[in-house]
Amino acid sequence: MFHELNEECGVFGIYGPDEKQVVELSHLALYAMQHRGRDGAGIAVTDSETIYSYKDLGLVADVFTAKVLKSMKTGHIAIGHVRNSRRAVVERFAAQPLVMRYMKGVMGLANNGALVNGHELRSALEHDGAMFQTSSDAEVIAYLVARKRVKSGSLEKAIVEAMDEIQGAYSMVLLGRHKLIAVRDPRGMRPLSLGRIGDDCWVVASETCVFDGIGAQFVREVEPGEVIMVDEYGLHSDRTHCGKEKPALCIYEYVYFARPDSVIHGKSVHEVRMEIGKLLAKEHPVEADIVCGVPDSGISAAIGYSLASGIPYGTALIKNKYISQAHISKDDESFERALKVKLNVLEAIIRGKRVILIDDSIIKGMTAKHIIGLLRKAGATEVHLRISSPPVFNNCYFGTTINDRGSLITSTMQVEQICQAVGADSLGFASVDGIHAVGGMENIGICDACFTGHYPMPVSEQIIV
Ligand code: SF4
């Protein structure tokens, strides 16, 4: 559904001998990652001579029409990207992959994440004569890598050197004329996994659900700090930056961003969400007749709450999946209008019932208010809101849309006030300690800075609660 919290992107890469399949599989992979970015989509492919790309704003289906797919060049290596913009105005140029010509040839790059020193690096490069076409960090990284490549012996060496300078969250795929490269930041803040189709086709993707969709076997996660390169000699790995930093996977990958059928760090996202639902039932019990989840990411937690509390689970909210992003701008009024089309209530399930409503987060409160209003209109006698993450008090500097602390309802109101503002009878959040204990999360190493203010690296503005 349209969500007040969004992430920046999903990336995909493929190195395969079957040229006919490379673009087709990339296209399917982008479909499987559509939930990670709805503002733009693109594919870049190389035939060893040059890199061809097609990208535009919109959903994958809007960008890659049958006509576009038919006209696309093919090759044996490709990268793909789905984008979610944090900005109200989405820049057409900023759709990815970026394809850059430079002294050593041509390179494609697609990134998921954000740099905390992106402005600093951009400014230093501009003072040195660089001209940027977009405001994206991906272009800064590409520029930096290109400069390093002029002196380094290879593209992968240039990337390893550039990693000394870039700070932040990034999971990237890069495309040279003869190689595919996958890179994950030293803290592993965004997920990135390696898979295989048969003996000689390698794939990388932001989420493992992509592999199921394209018939690939999961091999392993790309390690935090690792640079993987695939070329005609096979797969090679550079671990220069591995183990240098404490891992800090974004907790929201489990709570909301990832698809429930994905697996991260060997843990099923669906099962982790169910465990958080059980935690919520323990931390915030309430008498009620039915537990409902806000689709899609609230569903697993609602099932968990139901199992732990013994209160029956019911499907009460029906989501319309077919509205195009082209109908929606990012202002609040448009967001509300879109919500009306996007969600409807099954009145027969709700009428006369005390409802526990589970959602994954509450950012501005508009979504919660709208859904609670729908439930009351459908005859719910009570609505108890339970959130499967802790209250958000701080900005995220790593590529999500939690970037305006002043607009966070949880940072400006107390729980009772929020309850009143969204029209709930009661409200409870999962606790930070509770979340850390779920599924052995504390052993993985997670980022929880938007709840606690404990950032995994220095950021320009820290708000400690
Ligand atoms: S600050 Fe919050 S949203 Fe941002 S990476 Fe950390 S946990 Fe994720």
Structural description of this entry:
This protein is α+β, with helices and mostly antiparallel strands. It has 2 domains: 9-247, 4-Layer Sandwich (Glutamine Phosphoribosylpyrophosphate, subunit 1, domain 1); 269-452, Rossmann fold, CATH 3.40.50. It contains 18 helices and 23 strands. A hairpin with a 4-residue loop joins strand 7 (168-175) and strand 8 (180-184). Helix 9 (269-283) packs across helix 10. The longest helix has 15 residues, at 137-151. The protein is globular. The protein binds iron/sulfur cluster. The site of iron/sulfur cluster has 12 residues, from helix 18.
How are the SSEs ordered, and which strands pair?
Layout: E1 9-15, H1 19-32, E2 40-46, E3 51-57, H2 60-63, H3 66-71, E4 77-83, E5 98-102, E6 105-115, H4 118-127, H5 137-151, H6 155-162, E7 168-175, E8 180-184, E9 193-197, E10 201-205, H7 209-214, E11 217-221, E12 227-231, E13 234-238, E14 249-250, H8 252-257, E15 263-264, E16 267-268, H9 269-283, E17 290-293, H10 297-309, E18 317-319, H11 332-342, E19 343-345, H12 347-350, E20 354-359, H13 366-377, E21 382-387, H14 409-412, H15 415-422, E22 426-429, H16 432-437, H17 441-444, E23 446-447, H18 449-452
Helix pairs in contact: 4-5, 5-6, 9-10
The chain binds iron/sulfur cluster.
Overall tally of domains: 2
Uncertain regions spanning at least 5 consecutive residues: none
Give Rg in angstroms.
22 Å
Q: What is the CATH superfamily of the largest domain?
A: Aminohydrolase, N-terminal nucleophile (Ntn) domain
Task: Describe the global form.
Answer: globular
**Helix amount:** 25-40%
Report the CATH C-level class of the largest domain.
Alpha Beta
**Total count of helical runs of at least 4 residues:** 18
Query: What is the CATH fold-level name of the largest domain?
Result: Glutamine Phosphoribosylpyrophosphate, subunit 1, domain 1
| Class by SSE composition | alpha+beta
Spatial order of the strands forming the largest sheet: 3-2-4-1-10-9-11
Largest sheet: 7 strands, antiparallel
User: Strand percentage, roughly?
Assistant: 15-25%
Distance between the termini: 30 Å
**What is the total tally of β strands?**
23
Bound molecules: iron/sulfur cluster
Mean of residue pLDDT values: 91
Named at the architecture level, the CATH assignment of the largest domain is: 4-Layer Sandwich
